[in-house]
Sequence to fold (333 residues):
Amino acid sequence: MSDTTGFVPSDRHPNLAMLDGYWTDGHAARLPVAGTPECWIELDPTHGEMKLALPADGNEPDVTKFRNIDLATFTDDGSVWWEIRVLVDDSLHEAYSLLTRVADLIQLDRQSVAMAVHTALEAYRTLLASRGALSEEQQVGLHGELLLVEHLLDSLGSEDTISAWMGPLSEEHDLAFADVHLEVKTTKGEHRRHMISGTQQLQPLRGIPLWLVSIQLTPSTPDAGRTLVNLVMSVRARAGDFRPRIDALLLAMGWRDSDADLYTRHLALRSQPRAYLVDDSFPALTDARIGDAVPHADLLSDVRYRIDVTQLEHGTPPHPISGFVETTAAGQP
Fold:
C-alpha cells in the first residue's frame, strides 16, 4: 500500500495504521466523523468496499463517469441519506483518503455535497478510473467472437470449447483445436472487409489448417437482435464450471461488468457467416511472403492491412463450426 495517498493525519480520522488493523481484522466497522453535518465512514472488508454516509442535501453528486465508485440512497429513521461507495481493490489508503477528503470539504470548508465530491474526484482519477466502453471495432469484434463461442458451447460442450478459446493475449489464433485453427473477423459493413493485425494473424501454425471466419452484423431491434450484455450472459450460463476461464478471457478483451449499461445497441447477423481456408492462394501478408519481397523486412513492424474476402471462394471447415457457416459457394456474389 502506498504512503503517498494525500491523506493528512488529524484528530478527525483514525490514522492509516489503525485503518489497516480494522481492514485486516476482516469485520465491518463504522468510523464516525465528528462535525456538522453528521457523517461516517463504513469499512466493509468482506465485500471490498468503503462507504461514506452523509445526509442527502442539495444536488445529487455525479459519479457516473467513474468506474470504481457509485452512489446509493437510503432512508434511516425518516431521513434520507446518500452513501458514496468505493471499490477498494488494492487501494485501501487511497479510498480512505478520498472519503475523508469529501467529509473534510463538507464539514470544514462548508462545500455542498455535490461540489465536495466533484473536487475530491478530480484529485483521485487514477484510483477511480474513468468509465469507457470498448471502441466500436472492439465491440463488433467481441460480438462476433461470442456468437461463434456460443455455437461451439452448444455443439461441442464447455471443456473443449473453453480449452480452444485462446483470447487476445495468446500467440495462437482465436480458437485453436487439435486439427483446425480459427481466426474470427467481424464487420458491420456490406462487404466482408476485415482488418488484419500483424504478419502472424493469418499464418498457419504447426501445419494445422487455418480458417478465417467472416461474420457480418447489422444494427437491429430488441426483438430481432442482441446486445453484448445478452451474449456475455448467454456464454457464461453455458460455460458451467468453466465460467472463471470465460471471465478471465472477457477481462483480457476489455469487458467489465460495471460498464454493462454502456452496451445497449442490438446487433443481428446481416448474412450467414462464411469461412475461408488460409492456404497458399489466400491473400495474406506473412513473414515469409514479406521476406521474399521486401529488402530488410525484419525492420518492419506494426503491420496492419485490410482484406476484402467478399469475392473469394468460401468453404466448409471441419466440425465443430460446420453448422455455423454457410456450407456452399452457391449464390456467392
The chain has nine helices and twelve strands. The radius of gyration is 26 Å. The chain has two domains: 16-128, 136-308. The chain has a mean pLDDT of 87.
